[in-house]
Amino acid sequence: MLFATSCVAYLGWLFYGQTIPYSSQPDAAIPNIIVGGNSSLAVEQDEPVQICGITALLGDYEKTAKEPVEPLDPSFPLFLITDQEHLLRPNSTSAWTRVRLDATLWQEDCAKPEFVGAKNNPCDEPFLFNLAKFYKMQFYRVPELSSCSVIVWLDATLQIKAEFMEAMANRAERGQNFVVYVQDGPRKSWANGEVKGEVGRSKYGKYGGKQPGSFGPPQHVEKQYERYLEEGYRDKWFEDAAWLDDYKGVGNDLKYGLYMTCMVMFDLRKEETKQFLDCWWKETIVGSTQDQVSFPYCAWKLNTRIHALPDKEAPTRWDPTNREADSNPYFRKLEHGL
Protein backbone atom coordinates (compact mmCIF):
# COMPACT_ATOMS: atom_id res chain seq x y z
CA MET A 1 0.00 0.00 0.00
CA LEU A 2 1.25 3.51 -0.74
CA PHE A 3 0.31 6.77 0.78
CA ALA A 4 1.20 10.44 0.47
CA THR A 5 1.33 13.43 2.73
CA SER A 6 -1.73 15.52 3.34
CA CYS A 7 -2.63 18.68 5.17
CA VAL A 8 -4.15 16.87 8.09
CA ALA A 9 -3.30 13.27 7.52
CA TYR A 10 -1.20 11.49 4.94
CA LEU A 11 2.34 11.74 3.78
CA GLY A 12 4.56 9.98 1.30
CA TRP A 13 8.00 8.39 1.44
CA LEU A 14 10.73 7.26 -0.95
CA PHE A 15 13.95 5.40 -1.70
CA TYR A 16 16.78 7.29 -3.40
CA GLY A 17 19.00 5.90 -6.11
CA GLN A 18 19.42 7.58 -9.45
CA THR A 19 17.93 10.81 -10.64
CA ILE A 20 15.90 10.45 -13.81
CA PRO A 21 15.66 13.36 -16.27
CA TYR A 22 12.18 14.79 -16.20
CA SER A 23 11.61 17.57 -18.64
CA SER A 24 12.32 18.67 -22.15
CA GLN A 25 14.96 20.98 -20.67
CA PRO A 26 16.70 18.79 -18.08
CA ASP A 27 19.82 20.93 -18.04
CA ALA A 28 18.03 24.15 -17.21
CA ALA A 29 19.72 26.03 -14.39
CA ILE A 30 17.97 26.66 -11.10
CA PRO A 31 16.62 30.21 -11.23
CA ASN A 32 18.49 32.59 -8.95
CA ILE A 33 16.98 35.49 -7.03
CA ILE A 34 19.54 37.71 -5.36
CA VAL A 35 18.77 38.58 -1.76
CA GLY A 36 19.47 42.00 -0.30
CA GLY A 37 21.24 42.27 3.05
CA ASN A 38 19.90 45.47 4.57
CA SER A 39 16.50 44.34 5.82
CA SER A 40 16.04 43.24 9.41
CA LEU A 41 14.53 40.08 7.92
CA ALA A 42 17.47 39.42 5.59
CA VAL A 43 19.23 36.07 5.62
CA GLU A 44 22.53 35.61 7.41
CA GLN A 45 24.49 35.71 4.15
CA ASP A 46 23.98 37.40 0.80
CA GLU A 47 23.27 34.25 -1.19
CA PRO A 48 21.04 33.69 -4.19
CA VAL A 49 17.75 31.95 -3.58
CA GLN A 50 17.85 28.55 -5.25
CA ILE A 51 14.36 27.28 -4.60
CA CYS A 52 13.14 23.72 -5.14
CA GLY A 53 9.97 21.79 -4.41
CA ILE A 54 9.81 18.27 -3.01
CA THR A 55 7.00 15.76 -2.69
CA ALA A 56 6.80 12.01 -2.04
CA LEU A 57 4.78 9.10 -3.40
CA LEU A 58 5.28 5.72 -1.70
CA GLY A 59 3.39 2.52 -2.26
CA ASP A 60 0.16 2.80 -4.22
CA TYR A 61 -2.01 5.02 -2.05
CA GLU A 62 -1.46 7.91 -4.45
CA LYS A 63 -1.33 6.86 -8.10
CA THR A 64 0.15 9.78 -10.03
CA ALA A 65 2.53 12.71 -9.82
CA LYS A 66 0.48 15.90 -9.63
CA GLU A 67 1.70 18.07 -12.47
CA PRO A 68 1.41 21.86 -12.08
CA VAL A 69 -1.93 23.30 -13.15
CA GLU A 70 -0.06 25.35 -15.74
CA PRO A 71 3.63 25.22 -16.72
CA LEU A 72 5.83 27.06 -14.20
CA ASP A 73 7.19 30.30 -15.61
CA PRO A 74 10.02 30.61 -14.88
CA SER A 75 10.77 26.92 -14.41
CA PHE A 76 11.90 25.66 -11.01
CA PRO A 77 13.21 22.22 -9.98
CA LEU A 78 10.62 19.86 -8.52
CA PHE A 79 11.67 16.54 -6.95
CA LEU A 80 9.39 13.53 -6.62
CA ILE A 81 10.52 10.86 -4.13
CA THR A 82 9.09 7.44 -4.82
CA ASP A 83 9.60 3.69 -4.58
CA GLN A 84 7.23 2.99 -7.46
CA GLU A 85 8.95 1.69 -10.59
CA HIS A 86 6.32 3.08 -12.96
CA LEU A 87 6.85 6.54 -11.47
CA LEU A 88 10.63 6.24 -11.76
CA ARG A 89 10.51 5.79 -15.54
CA PRO A 90 11.76 8.77 -17.57
CA ASN A 91 8.96 11.14 -18.52
CA SER A 92 9.89 14.03 -20.77
CA THR A 93 6.54 15.75 -20.25
CA SER A 94 6.64 15.76 -16.45
CA ALA A 95 7.76 18.71 -14.34
CA TRP A 96 9.10 16.32 -11.70
CA THR A 97 12.60 14.88 -11.37
CA ARG A 98 12.14 11.33 -10.03
CA VAL A 99 14.32 10.15 -7.12
CA ARG A 100 14.40 6.66 -5.62
CA LEU A 101 14.33 6.28 -1.84
CA ASP A 102 17.66 5.55 -0.16
CA ALA A 103 17.33 3.65 3.11
CA THR A 104 20.96 4.40 3.97
CA LEU A 105 20.24 8.08 4.61
CA TRP A 106 18.83 7.58 8.10
CA GLN A 107 21.05 4.71 9.25
CA GLU A 108 23.29 6.99 11.32
CA ASP A 109 20.23 8.27 13.18
CA CYS A 110 19.26 4.76 14.26
CA ALA A 111 22.44 4.40 16.32
CA LYS A 112 22.35 7.79 18.05
CA PRO A 113 22.10 7.29 21.84
CA GLU A 114 18.97 9.45 22.12
CA PHE A 115 17.25 7.34 19.43
CA VAL A 116 18.28 3.82 20.45
CA GLY A 117 15.11 2.11 21.66
CA ALA A 118 12.97 5.15 20.79
CA LYS A 119 9.37 4.61 19.78
CA ASN A 120 9.82 5.40 16.08
CA ASN A 121 13.48 4.59 15.49
CA PRO A 122 13.36 4.30 11.68
CA CYS A 123 15.43 1.10 11.64
CA ASP A 124 13.25 -0.61 14.25
CA GLU A 125 9.96 0.80 12.93
CA PRO A 126 10.32 1.11 9.14
CA PHE A 127 6.63 1.59 8.38
CA LEU A 128 5.96 3.88 5.46
CA PHE A 129 4.50 6.82 7.32
CA ASN A 130 7.54 6.91 9.59
CA LEU A 131 10.09 6.78 6.79
CA ALA A 132 8.23 9.49 4.92
CA LYS A 133 8.89 11.89 7.77
CA PHE A 134 12.63 11.72 7.10
CA TYR A 135 12.14 13.31 3.69
CA LYS A 136 9.70 15.86 5.03
CA MET A 137 11.99 16.92 7.87
CA GLN A 138 15.53 16.05 6.75
CA PHE A 139 15.44 16.85 3.04
CA TYR A 140 18.63 18.88 3.41
CA ARG A 141 20.43 15.52 3.74
CA VAL A 142 19.13 14.24 0.39
CA PRO A 143 22.00 14.46 -2.15
CA GLU A 144 19.80 15.44 -5.10
CA LEU A 145 18.68 18.57 -3.26
CA SER A 146 22.16 19.71 -2.24
CA SER A 147 22.07 22.75 -4.54
CA CYS A 148 18.73 23.97 -3.18
CA SER A 149 18.91 26.76 -0.61
CA VAL A 150 15.15 27.15 -0.15
CA ILE A 151 12.87 24.10 -0.08
CA VAL A 152 9.09 23.91 -0.32
CA TRP A 153 7.59 20.70 1.06
CA LEU A 154 4.43 19.71 -0.84
CA ASP A 155 1.94 17.02 0.00
CA ALA A 156 1.50 14.56 -2.86
CA THR A 157 -2.14 15.61 -3.23
CA LEU A 158 -1.22 19.24 -3.94
CA GLN A 159 -1.30 20.54 -7.49
CA ILE A 160 0.61 23.80 -7.63
CA LYS A 161 -0.34 26.79 -9.75
CA ALA A 162 1.94 28.57 -12.19
CA GLU A 163 2.94 31.44 -9.90
CA PHE A 164 3.49 29.37 -6.76
CA MET A 165 7.24 28.69 -6.83
CA GLU A 166 8.14 32.20 -7.93
CA ALA A 167 5.93 33.62 -5.18
CA MET A 168 7.71 31.47 -2.59
CA ALA A 169 11.11 32.51 -3.96
CA ASN A 170 10.11 36.16 -3.68
CA ARG A 171 9.00 35.58 -0.08
CA ALA A 172 12.39 34.05 0.73
CA GLU A 173 14.08 37.01 -0.96
CA ARG A 174 12.30 39.31 1.48
CA GLY A 175 13.44 37.24 4.45
CA GLN A 176 10.33 35.13 5.09
CA ASN A 177 10.82 31.62 6.48
CA PHE A 178 8.57 28.83 7.82
CA VAL A 179 5.75 29.97 5.52
CA VAL A 180 2.68 27.80 6.17
CA TYR A 181 -1.10 28.00 6.28
CA VAL A 182 -2.87 28.03 9.63
CA GLN A 183 -5.16 25.06 10.17
CA ASP A 184 -8.50 26.04 8.70
CA GLY A 185 -11.70 24.14 8.14
CA PRO A 186 -14.93 23.16 9.87
CA ARG A 187 -13.69 21.29 12.95
CA LYS A 188 -14.35 23.06 16.24
CA SER A 189 -10.95 21.89 17.54
CA TRP A 190 -9.26 24.00 14.83
CA ALA A 191 -11.12 27.22 15.53
CA ASN A 192 -8.78 28.51 18.25
CA GLY A 193 -5.46 27.26 16.89
CA GLU A 194 -4.83 25.09 19.94
CA VAL A 195 -2.62 22.03 19.69
CA LYS A 196 -4.54 20.26 22.43
CA GLY A 197 -7.50 19.94 20.08
CA GLU A 198 -5.40 18.12 17.51
CA VAL A 199 -4.02 15.89 20.28
CA GLY A 200 -7.53 14.80 21.18
CA ARG A 201 -8.41 14.07 17.56
CA SER A 202 -5.25 12.01 17.18
CA LYS A 203 -6.52 9.28 19.49
CA TYR A 204 -8.39 7.90 16.50
CA GLY A 205 -7.62 6.94 12.92
CA LYS A 206 -4.08 6.27 11.84
CA TYR A 207 -2.43 7.77 14.92
CA GLY A 208 -4.55 5.55 17.14
CA GLY A 209 -3.40 2.42 15.34
CA LYS A 210 -6.72 2.01 13.52
CA GLN A 211 -4.99 1.88 10.14
CA PRO A 212 -2.08 -0.54 10.77
CA GLY A 213 0.58 -1.37 8.23
CA SER A 214 1.69 1.78 6.46
CA PHE A 215 0.75 4.00 9.41
CA GLY A 216 2.31 1.82 12.09
CA PRO A 217 1.35 1.13 15.70
CA PRO A 218 -0.63 3.47 18.01
CA GLN A 219 1.31 6.69 18.47
CA HIS A 220 0.01 7.77 21.91
CA VAL A 221 0.08 11.43 20.96
CA GLU A 222 -1.50 12.38 24.27
CA LYS A 223 1.59 11.15 26.15
CA GLN A 224 3.77 13.19 23.85
CA TYR A 225 1.68 16.28 24.59
CA GLU A 226 1.82 15.63 28.33
CA ARG A 227 5.62 15.69 28.09
CA TYR A 228 5.43 19.01 26.27
CA LEU A 229 3.31 20.47 29.05
CA GLU A 230 5.76 19.19 31.66
CA GLU A 231 8.56 20.95 29.80
CA GLY A 232 6.64 24.23 29.95
CA TYR A 233 4.91 24.32 26.57
CA ARG A 234 1.55 26.05 26.43
CA ASP A 235 -0.76 26.95 23.56
CA LYS A 236 -0.59 30.63 22.62
CA TRP A 237 2.88 30.97 24.19
CA PHE A 238 3.58 33.78 21.70
CA GLU A 239 0.54 35.95 22.47
CA ASP A 240 2.54 38.75 24.12
CA ALA A 241 5.47 38.63 21.70
CA ALA A 242 6.36 41.94 20.07
CA TRP A 243 6.79 40.21 16.70
CA LEU A 244 3.37 38.52 16.57
CA ASP A 245 1.55 41.10 14.43
CA ASP A 246 4.20 40.78 11.72
CA TYR A 247 3.86 36.99 11.49
CA LYS A 248 0.29 35.95 12.31
CA GLY A 249 -1.12 36.90 8.90
CA VAL A 250 -4.62 38.13 8.08
CA GLY A 251 -7.65 36.92 10.01
CA ASN A 252 -5.55 34.47 12.02
CA ASP A 253 -5.81 36.04 15.47
CA LEU A 254 -7.35 32.89 16.95
CA LYS A 255 -5.98 30.31 14.51
CA TYR A 256 -2.29 31.19 14.77
CA GLY A 257 -0.53 28.35 16.59
CA LEU A 258 -1.82 25.30 14.69
CA TYR A 259 -0.67 24.81 11.11
CA MET A 260 -1.40 22.76 8.00
CA THR A 261 1.99 21.24 7.32
CA CYS A 262 1.08 19.90 3.89
CA MET A 263 2.94 22.92 2.46
CA VAL A 264 5.82 24.62 4.24
CA MET A 265 8.57 26.82 2.84
CA PHE A 266 11.95 26.51 4.57
CA ASP A 267 15.00 28.74 4.00
CA LEU A 268 18.10 26.59 4.53
CA ARG A 269 20.40 29.62 4.41
CA LYS A 270 19.19 30.53 7.88
CA GLU A 271 20.79 28.78 10.83
CA GLU A 272 17.43 28.46 12.58
CA THR A 273 16.00 26.26 9.83
CA LYS A 274 18.12 23.14 10.27
CA GLN A 275 17.77 23.47 14.04
CA PHE A 276 14.02 23.44 13.63
CA LEU A 277 14.05 20.52 11.16
CA ASP A 278 16.27 18.49 13.49
CA CYS A 279 13.90 19.16 16.39
CA TRP A 280 10.93 18.15 14.24
CA TRP A 281 12.60 14.90 13.17
CA LYS A 282 13.68 14.09 16.72
CA GLU A 283 10.13 14.52 17.97
CA THR A 284 8.92 12.09 15.31
CA ILE A 285 11.38 9.46 16.51
CA VAL A 286 10.92 9.88 20.27
CA GLY A 287 7.32 11.13 20.24
CA SER A 288 4.94 10.40 17.38
CA THR A 289 4.41 10.77 13.67
CA GLN A 290 1.77 13.46 14.34
CA ASP A 291 3.81 16.35 12.97
CA GLN A 292 1.01 18.92 13.40
CA VAL A 293 1.61 18.51 17.14
CA SER A 294 5.41 18.53 17.08
CA PHE A 295 5.65 21.49 14.66
CA PRO A 296 4.21 24.02 17.18
CA TYR A 297 6.25 22.42 19.97
CA CYS A 298 9.50 22.98 18.08
CA ALA A 299 8.43 26.55 17.34
CA TRP A 300 8.00 27.10 21.10
CA LYS A 301 11.19 25.29 22.06
CA LEU A 302 13.31 27.26 19.61
CA ASN A 303 11.30 30.51 19.79
CA THR A 304 10.67 30.25 16.05
CA ARG A 305 8.56 32.86 14.32
CA ILE A 306 6.17 31.02 11.98
CA HIS A 307 5.01 33.11 9.01
CA ALA A 308 1.33 32.27 8.74
CA LEU A 309 -0.90 32.31 5.70
CA PRO A 310 -3.25 33.83 4.71
CA ASP A 311 -1.41 37.16 4.92
CA LYS A 312 -1.63 40.56 3.25
CA GLU A 313 0.11 39.23 0.17
CA ALA A 314 -2.23 36.25 -0.21
CA PRO A 315 -5.28 37.10 1.95
CA THR A 316 -7.79 34.56 0.61
CA ARG A 317 -8.98 32.11 3.23
CA TRP A 318 -8.82 28.46 2.25
CA ASP A 319 -10.89 25.54 3.47
CA PRO A 320 -8.89 22.40 2.63
CA THR A 321 -12.02 20.24 2.98
CA ASN A 322 -13.78 22.08 0.13
CA ARG A 323 -12.37 20.50 -3.02
CA GLU A 324 -14.62 22.50 -5.36
CA ALA A 325 -13.89 26.05 -4.25
CA ASP A 326 -10.33 26.27 -5.68
CA SER A 327 -9.87 29.34 -3.49
CA ASN A 328 -6.20 28.80 -2.64
CA PRO A 329 -4.09 31.15 -4.79
CA TYR A 330 -1.09 28.82 -4.76
CA PHE A 331 -2.32 25.26 -5.23
CA ARG A 332 -5.25 22.86 -5.40
CA LYS A 333 -5.80 20.16 -2.77
CA LEU A 334 -6.95 17.01 -4.57
CA GLU A 335 -8.57 13.86 -3.20
CA HIS A 336 -6.40 10.99 -2.02
CA GLY A 337 -5.96 8.00 -4.28
CA LEU A 338 -5.57 9.87 -7.58
Write a compact overview of the structure shown.
The protein is α/β, with parallel strands linked by helices. It is 23% helix and 15% strand.
Keywords:
single chain; 338 residues; alpha/beta; 9-stranded mixed β-sheet; two-stranded antiparallel ribbon; 23% helix; globular; disordered N terminus
Describe this structure as you would to a colleague:
By secondary structure, the protein is of the alpha/beta class. The chain is 23% helix and 15% strand. Strands 1, 2, 3, 4, 5, 6, 8, 9 and 10 form a nine-stranded mixed β-sheet that branches. Helix 1 links the parallel strand 4 and strand 5. It is globular and about 50 Å long. It starts with 18 loop residues before the first strand and ends in a 5-residue tail after the last strand. Residues 1-6 and 8-43 have low confidence and may be disordered.
Number of strands: 11
> Averaged pLDDT, please?
85
Share of residues in helices: 10-25%
Listing every helix as H and every strand as E from the N terminus to the C terminus, the arrangement reads EEEEHEHHEEHEHHHEHHEE
Low-pLDDT parts are 1-6, 8-43
Q: What is the SS-derived class?
A: alpha/beta
Largest sheet: 9 strands, mixed
SSE blueprint:
Blueprint: E1 19-20, E2 32-33, E3 49-57, E4 78-82, H1 85-88, E5 96-100, H2 107-110, H3 128-137, E6 150-154, E7 158-160, H4 164-173, E8 179-182, H5 195-201, H6 221-231, H7 244-247, E9 259-267, H8 271-286, H9 291-302, E10 307-309, E11 331-333
